[in-house]
Amino acid sequence: MPYVENRPAGFWIRFLAFFIDGILMSAFAYLVAVVIRDHKHLESFKIIGSERYYTTAGMIADNIYIILFIIIFTATLKGSLGKLICRIQVVNQDHSTISLLKSIGRYFAHIVSIFTIIGVVMVGLNKRKKGLHDLLCQTVVVYRNQYSDPTDW
């Protein structure tokens, strides 16, 4: 299939992917808590707040998910599970797969974008739909081509 430039993914679809990732992360942390019998974590689901992230299960789940997110999802599958579900992908500006090193850098740049808030809001404010983390790492988030090779998922 000839090269077709995919259109940039905007703020709301990226927000939806991020939200889905949060739900999946919580479910994964809950599963880890059940497996290791972390009662404090299981109880924290009844409490509104961030207490659950300071439990053993929360820390284990966070670290595993970060590793999976960086290595498997972003560097190999071109996006997190949320991005896969939303049919968007993270690629270099030439639409090639990003490297593992760039994936790590983008992960930490995304944290900076979230803390500054404007770094994420930028996605909705510019024509190319790039956030601060995209600008810093020279990446772009685009919709997946519906006719793409299944290995491109």
Keyword list:
153 residues, elongated, disordered C terminus
Radius of gyration over alpha carbons? 17 Å
Estimate nothing, just give the exact number of structural domains.
Answer: 1
Strand element count? 2
Series of H and E elements: HHHHEHHHE
- For the report, how would you describe the main beta sheet? 2 strands, antiparallel
The backbone outline, from C-alpha atoms, is elongated
Uncertain segments of ≥5 residues (pLDDT<50)?
149-153
Query: Please, how many helices?
Result: 7
- Beta strand %: 5-15%
The residue-averaged pLDDT reads 79
- Structural class of the helices, strands and pairings? mainly alpha
Strand order of the largest sheet: 1-2
Spatial separation of the terminal alpha carbons: 16 Å
> Helical content, roughly?
55-70%
Membrane topology: Multi-pass membrane protein
Organism: Alkalibacillus silvisoli
Subcellular location: Cell membrane
Protein name: RDD family protein
Task: List strands and helices in order, with pairings.
Blueprint: H1 11-36, H2 39-44, H3 56-76, H4 81-85, E1 88-92, H5 100-116, H6 118-125, H7 132-137, E2 139-143
Antiparallel strand pairs: 1-2
Helix pairs in contact: 1-3, 3-5
Main location: membrane
Keywords: Cell membrane, Membrane, Transmembrane, Transmembrane helix
InterPro entries: Pra-immunoreactive, RDD
